[in-house]
Amino acid sequence: MERASSGAAALGPATRPVQRPPVVKHGRTDQRDNMEALRQPQPTQQVQPSKTGPPRSPFPLDPVEKARRQMGYRNNWNRNPVDQDSQVRWPEPLSLNPAVAIIGGGMSGLMCARELARLGIRSTVFDTGKHGVGGRMATRASGEPSLRSGTGSRGKPAVQLGGLRFDHAAQFFTVTDPLFQGVVDEWLKEGLVRVWDGPVGKLRADMGAFYPLPASPPRYVSTGGMRSLAERVAEQLLLHGEGARPGARGPGLVEVKRPVWIGKMQAEEGRGWTLQGEGQRQGVYDVVVIAHNGKCANRLVGPAGAPRVAEQLMRLRLNAVWALMVAFDGPVPVPFEGAFIQGSPVLSWAGNNTAKMQLRHAPNDLECWTVFSTNAYGQANKVPQEAIPADVADKIAGEMLAAFKQATSGTASSPGTDRWPRPVFTRVQLWGAALPLNTPGLPCILDPDSRVGVCGDWLMGGSLQAAAVSGISLARKIAGLRGKSGPEQLAPFKLGLGTPFTPLRATDIGEFPH
User: Fold this and answer.
1) For residues 431 and 413, what is the distance between their CA atoms, to the nearest angstrom?
2) Quick one: 279 and 290 in the same domain?
3) Which residues pair with 371 in a beta bridge?
4) Residue-wise pLDDT tens digits, 255-289
5) What is the domain count for the chain?
6) Which residue, of 89, 113, 121, 318, is most buried by count of CB atoms within 10 Å of its CB?
7) What is the DSSP code string of 198-220?
8) What angle, 0 to 180 degrees and rounded to 10, lies between the N-to-C axes of helices 464-481 and 178-190?
9) Which residues pair with 168 in a beta bridge?
10) pLDDT in tens, 402-438
11) Residue 125 forms beta bridges with which residues?
């Protein structure tokens, strides 16, 4: 292994609408103004000045601002400078039987492990998930540790209500890439996914008008929630060696460790990359795949010895969204099962989990919905997401419920069904580093000198398809790198190290290729 100096890398038309509203333009400035209005504290009874101290404000402190002050939180993203002289270069060719560490067990990490197994390469997937693998393929369900209770000052235990289940990140996915279509076809045959036929479209919140989207391309959902798909993929890799080529050692090629948080990676001369996590060594690997992003990935890779990879990770910008999981005591009177919400400063999506997953509840009339905020609202109300105070949870749930009701006020499906049901369970979660705002527009990043690669949806957009294709593409590049050394042989494997980023045009909940 050598550490040598290197130069810095350059940086459908919808069908006929139910109602045709007049053209109303909403700019970002308007949304910011609306956001500020939402954040304004409401006056309370005048408080008399204290005799022992300065007069107190007659306005209560906003719960979000209060939490930020108490926790010393600032909504920023510090990026430490990268040491270009720290570049690691391994002098020996990559082993023909390398050990690969994949840090992140979302779709891209799992598909990378799947393809590596197909090519006869061993890998270990490290995931931080407490309730299962999947990353943003996340589902919470009553009767499981993932959903013991609601949030806020009146959070009820989920066990009081039966059959609650919420996809609170990825909602559905579409397919246009033949590589991913082959994988999805296998899932369809196995009954892991199905087509979501329910009405999905665009909801104009300012006018209450719903526009259905075409049924093509099909919208796919997991039959038991998105997390169950990720868990099934992992089970197939562990138990059956699914995807392994004939003659390859299928079972045993993939190991999944969770919950494990990898906090340090260090190059050891003559050995490889040593990973540290959970207070102990987690093994030595020939190749490291970064299959997650955000501050944690930046802190891990920044000082490790792959500066060009670190710089690309640090150029990524991510949005922030609040997810509201809410169970109503009856059907919500709307003509859709899923809607991209436009013209609201608060909401970007609402989806009916009960209809989408064909759930059964106790009581029978319950209806489970997932509602997402806009990025603007998420940023304005961002707090440390690991411990959300009850008053913040109350504020977020209250504002998002009010915005949901207001946005759907003109869409009641028939006369007499406009009674708004009562929310009987709410839980909020902040995705503080959710989906990409910019992208380099390529399948993966690979530095063959340090043998560090990156896969993830953000490299080509923000879709489940992009994540899967990215993981598969990186696995194939790693396989091709075996036995290679020297500048000439490694040059074709240098991918994305200087590719510029461009803004990503997508919804606040991701891309859906069509």
Assistant:
1) 32
2) yes
3) 324, 350
4) 999 999 999 999 999 899 999 999 999 999 999 99
5) 2
6) 113
7) S-EEEEETTTTEEEEPPS-SPPE
8) 110
9) none
10) 999 999 986 655 444 458 899 999 999 999 989 999 9
11) 102, 256
